[in-house]
């Protein structure tokens, strides 16, 4: 049961134009896997050039940039954790290459000396900083195909 003082207080706040509201939960970013080249062209030689020809890409279809710090791309046996990285809004893309290299805004490097993605089929999982699955990209073995859109 409300007391007279709580009702008077609520009326006073309303009269002053102060209304308490709750903020809606923050919507998940419009971020998803775009594509992957899971089998680098040519022979698998494990040279850095060949390793970097294997990549997976993210796209941000939302209007605002998304800070990826702490987000992860997970394979069955490996995990890549994003450092201080932001993906631009309105179609911004980031490519994560398997091998070693110097990170730029659009190209990041896993730093692996082995291939990450299986040519016969695999699943990539994008996880939020909190560890929740945000998106997946799955492919199977299709003869002659080395790249897929997610």
TrEMBL record:
Signal sequence segment: 1-27
Pfam family, one: LTD
Ranges for domain LTD: 22-141
PROSITE patterns: LTD, PROKAR_LIPOPROTEIN
Keywords, comma-separated and alphabetical: Signal
InterPro entries, A to Z: Lamin_tail_dom (IPR001322), Lamin_tail_dom_sf (IPR036415)
The name this protein goes by in its record: Lamin tail-like protein
Species of provenance: Actinoplanes teichomyceticus
Phylogenetic placement of the source organism: Bacteria, Bacillati, Actinomycetota, Actinomycetes, Micromonosporales
